[in-house]
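COMPLEX REQUEST
Ligand: S-adenosylmethionine
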Amino acid sequence: MSISPARTVAFDILLRIDQQNAYASELLHSERLDKLAPTDRGLAMELVMGVLRWRSRLDDEIAAAASRPLKKLDAEVLNALRLAAYQLQVLTRVPPHAAINDSVELVKRAQKRSAAPFANAVLRKIAEARTEPVQPSADEAPVSFLAREYAHPEWLVERWVAQFGTERTRQICEFDQRIPTTSLRLENVDTERELTSEGVKLAPGVLLASSRTLVEGDLTRTHAYIEGRVFIQDEASQLVAALVGTGSRLLDCCAAPGGKTAAMTWRNPAAQIIAAEIHEHRAGLVRKRVRAANVKVIAADALQLPLNGGFDRVLADVPCSGTGTFARNPDIKWRLAVGTLSELHTKQVAILRAALQQLAAGGRAVYSTCSLEKEENEAVVEEVLRDTEGYQLRDCREELEKLRATGELKWEDLDSLLNGRFLRTVPGVQPCDGFFAAVMEKR
Ligand SMILES: C[S@@+](CC[C@H](N)C(=O)[O-])C[C@H]1O[C@@H](n2cnc3c(N)ncnc32)[C@H](O)[C@@H]1O
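STATUS: Structure written out below.
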């Protein structure tokens, strides 16, 4: 029996994420997906993202219907079950028999023929609602309730409740489970007119005047997108780039894929800008994205840059856990381990120390992450400033007030964007990724 191309591709991607720790964001932009017809591509993406977003709830559903523990199931069988369970429980427009048959065939195709009757029985039980739907109970302790209701790992929810309180954690978790909006950064109004004439419908952004939200249409097929005149970029990421401000020599020391370098270049068309990225292939992404003559992209380690300092603006947008981006990257939820946070902390401290060394007197560095975790944010900045002489932490409120005064920042409630002297966006409080930023100045 033939299996629908969308389900086949979705299954293969889910299996690779599960077995090889591959990243959904990369696999969903691969050639395999590009070769599908547009409707199949849309369905494959929806299936992969949906299963990753709701994975623990689907597993609860499967466990309630299965006669053996999930741990004993082969990855091929479990992922085929998750794929169908998602369609049965969430994507209810899909006919149940199509979802079930294709998953049973996928089990056979994965050389697990002997598990096909088991998969069939489990899925029929879920479809016929012979198992009680697994509903989290509001009487449960808040942490386990939120973790189960919104399909998040309990250890992370526990940390967030301690840091943000229960209600704000609920807002974050709820936001993470929704399909995120696509935000763009516009460099001029003519581009907006051009996009409209090509069938792309836009609405104003929420945080920034230069930002728009995609309402309708395929931006990636427009001339402006192909020619690099419009950029898909979350509004919080745009705001961090705006914090970098202006200068005559700028350094972006962790640059790929180049979203913030591009925004810095737009603000500083006459400055000398260096964008460094450790991985050569990722440095290539920045070169492709930022083609202005005043930008030099180098493949180099931020810890050993072949540069002699003297920069008046430095951005260190460091590698991080990405816990502020679960709406876009739900696979991270299931990959992250608590030990990773302290490894990242060590790396981030080293990069920030090296970034500060590149500043000229009076110059400013912006340190940023798309993480909600203190170890990667406040704790990094505080540790570096504690044992490095000659730098002071600036108050982000002042920077945000300046952006409000020029009309660039539209968001009125500055308090909600701040945590002490730091910038902090919180998914669900603002409709964007969770970013952290600190501004430091060399005396
Ligand atoms: C969070 S991403 C940067 C995103 C980018 N600023 C943007 O807005 O598009 C961090 C980047 O730093 C790179 N990286 C990691 N360690 C590095 C190092 N030691 N030196 C330079 N780049 C590094 C990673 O490969 C990754 O591309």
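REMARKS: Residues 237, 253-260, 276-279, 282, 301-303, 317, 319, 351 surround S-adenosylmethionine (CB under 6 Å). The mean pLDDT is 95.
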